[in-house]
Amino acid sequence: MLVPREAEMTLQKLAAGYPVVAVTGPRQSGKTTLVRNCFASKAYVSLEELDQREFASHDPRGFLAQYPDGAILDEVQRCPDLLSYLQSRVDEARQPGQFILTGSQQFDLHAHITQSLAGRVALLPLLPFTRDELATAKRAPSRLDEQLVTGSYPPIYDRQLEPGLWYGNYVSTYIERDVRRMVNVRDLSSFQRFLRLCAGRTGQLLNLSALANDCGITHNTAKAWISVLEASYLVHLLPPHHRNFNKRLIKTPKLYFFDTGLAAWLLGIKDAATLRVHAHRGALFETWVIGELLKFRYNRALPSNLFFWRDRTGNEVDVLIENASALLPLEIKSGETVNASFFDGLENWWSLAGKRAGPAYLVYGGNSAQTRQTITVLPWKQLGNLATA
Fold first, then answer.
1. The pLDDT of residue 179
2. Would you list the DSSP string of 291-356?
3. For domain 7-125, which CATH number applies: 3.40.50.300, 2.60.40.420, 3.20.20.140, 3.40.120.10?
4. Which helix (H) or strand (E) holds 320?
5. Would you say 44 and 36 are in contact if contact means Cβ atoms under 8 Å apart?
6. pLDDT of residue 382
7. How far is CA 210 from the centre of its chain?
8. What is the model's pTM?
9. Residue 250, pLDDT above cutoff 80
10. Could you say which of 166, 248, 279, 351 is the most buried, measured as most Cβ atoms within 10 Å of its Cβ?
11. What distance, in Å, lies between the first and last C-alpha atoms of the chain?
12. How far apart are alpha carbons 120 and 15 in whole angstroms?
């Protein structure tokens, strides 16, 4: 049984208005399944296959001539020069939805797309399942710790795989292979250590110097490797908000993994019982909330509108959601019981922001929705209520 994707309607709308749509995202996030399900009548070709890639590279015009009605071109980052030839092809036909591309490397692919297909292509990032998608298909874990450890990658749910085994294979089969393609990693064990150190810092300010020192690599290497993790849709750097509210602000981004299952595996957390008492439980819950909020945006082909706020005296708000009229502050607490101290950050920020502050939210690890002091308290299972914020 396929889990219906929230991005499906967005994909169909984009294909009705653009000659090319590019679906990007991490490996195994369900890109191929989504596009083949939406465009079942289109020809499909994977550029991961050596013979197809060689044909597309050496004779791009002949390769594209095979598909007069367009096609799905999977893992197109493997043959970026093909995009230049797509430009003349779609300009000639002038029809929407001709080619559907997928790719699993963010920066290089975007650079080639914007250079070759500017004005002709729509971009749709696809991350692993949202909790609402899993709940609709009756596949969602019922307990928070189980959700955090299992993560959201489709193969775990589609094939009912044991998460720990799958993540181990994912790291060795996809991540390490892609790293070798993107940067010259001479010592793979150093990169593995770097990856685990990053998992230990999810939800924290990014300190490249400390990361480099702990890993035994240079600052420039750490910077390059963080870029690789970003390009592979494994981590997200949450920027601080630019408004200072008359306070000196932290200017460093915060590091978050997109998927808590991967982060938990890298931390050696194998099951929900271990996570329950683990020091990183709060950080992983915060990571999960950030990931879900990003999915809400990406599934609608919208860029991130998420920031955090922290001044140099320690006052902070976990998330600021920026919309057209206001900034919506959001605090994230993994505890199952609402404590009065949970509201301190929101109340302090409200006193500074004044009229610029929108409705405030608290997401916590419990099960009851509440309204306290004009703050909406959402249990973790109802995080989807923020999708329209």
1. 75
2. HHHHHHHHTTT----EEEEEBTTS-EEEEEEE-SS-EEEEEEE--SS--GGGGHHHHHHHHHHGGG
3. 3.40.50.300
4. strand 316-322
5. yes
6. 95
7. 24
8. 0.93
9. no
10. 166
11. 31
12. 11
